[in-house]
């Protein structure tokens, strides 16, 4: 536990008291709507605050986790020991010519909408991705033949020495659902995208088409973390899961979506334990039937209740 009054008081020196929460239930901060309490959750409003918090945690050997919109995250039921740094209020966006800049906590969909407003093409694929820009850059998010690597120009990060610096697209080492951000544990503060001038109506129609396709094919009416598994090379996770007869399989309140087998959903007040057990069942069955290892695309953090 890091709820020692000296730790909380240190954060009060950095942040407004209202931006510090003790025993914050993480189910309120994740799209899956599961997760126990974090010892301390802090919500910085500028880059220097983020830097100070991280450097304080490192100096005092306090474990910390950084989250944005919590859309690619499963927090176990025992919660998180340590500090959760919530970047959701770092959400400013701007456009200068064909360059779109956005802070890490801004929604990727907000960036796509701003691009549309300025008749800039390249981010249409991002409109329906529910995560924050920081998370999207970290995992090179993508959909419908588009991904971050196609449009990113540079990123402002906090590196492993606790310093704020800019890195180029090449330094990001972007691959399928992977980047230098994840590889080295960088913290994304800001991203710059290089887009192209386009026709407003064409861009809008593309966004509307992708939105329609998502609504038709994805279980957006239930809490989830989007695609649960990474795409195995040469296969599609959802097809493998469906072909194993797992569509509709449930554990507690968690279910393999009958609408899209690649999604595990929180259908009825699921716990993180329900979700984790269902992930394990799916992995085991697909491995047995097809010899394919399914790796979670979702980030899994925290402790089980019996570990606390």
TrEMBL record:
UniProt subcellular location: Cytoplasm
Query: Keywords assigned by UniProt?
Result: Cell cycle, Cell division, Cell shape, Cell wall biogenesis/degradation, Cytoplasm, FAD, Flavoprotein, NADP, Oxidoreductase, Peptidoglycan synthesis
* Cofactor(s) in the UniProt record: FAD
What is catalyzed by this enzyme? Answer: UDP-N-acetyl-alpha-D-muramate + NADP(+) = UDP-N-acetyl-3-O-(1-carboxyvinyl)-alpha-D-glucosamine + NADPH + H(+)
Which Enzyme Commission number(s) are listed? Answer: 1.3.1.98
Membrane as UniProt keyword: no
Q: Name one GO molecular function term.
A: UDP-N-acetylmuramate dehydrogenase activity
The pathway this protein participates in, as annotated, is: Cell wall biogenesis; peptidoglycan biosynthesis
Signal peptide boundaries: none
Q: Which residues form the active site?
A: 177, 227 (proton donor), 297
Q: Which domain of life is it from?
A: Bacteria
Pfam families according to UniProt = FAD_binding_4, MurB_C
Domain named FAD-binding PCMH-type is located at 34-198
Briefly state the protein's biological role: Cell wall formation.
Family label? Belongs to the MurB family.
- Official protein name in the record: UDP-N-acetylenolpyruvoylglucosamine reductase
Q: Which organism is it from?
A: Clostridium aestuarii
Q: Taxonomic lineage per UniProt? A: Bacteria, Bacillati, Bacillota, Clostridia, Eubacteriales
